[in-house]
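Researcher: I'm preparing a figure for a lab meeting and need a structural model of a single chain. I don't have an experimental structure, so a prediction will have to do for now. The sequence is pasted below. Please return the structure as tokens so I can convert it later.
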Amino acid sequence: MNTATAMTRKDAIHFIAQLRGFIGTTQLQAIGHVCYSEEKQFMFEKLAELTGIIANMPKPYETDGQGNQAMVFLHYFIGNCDWWIIEKDIGDEQQQAFGCANLGYGSELGYISIAEIIAAGAELDLYWTPKPLSQC
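Model: Understood. Here is the structure written out token by token.
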């Protein structure tokens, strides 16, 4: 998508449909409201950026052996809990991801259910910039 041209709500609806497995209903509703505000172009571009990041994320085991140099593509948070996502499932329907979780007691690598963290009220950090795990 060329961001030099103004994106439309139709573009935003397309991006939101692709992001449904990664963003909770409440956060999607808030994003939807912004798509009707004067900040809509910013949000349209942010949705396009997130869609591209998710589409190009590594699949299971593609970062095996990279350790702390593996790139973290998504960040979820709620309270003092954080989840950093490195890999996503291959299928169309997001089931689980691989990453690092910190529930306030130290961090641990492993498989993470994005659906479960969204159901617990965690939000996707819309301002996250992909970076190596060592910087998280």
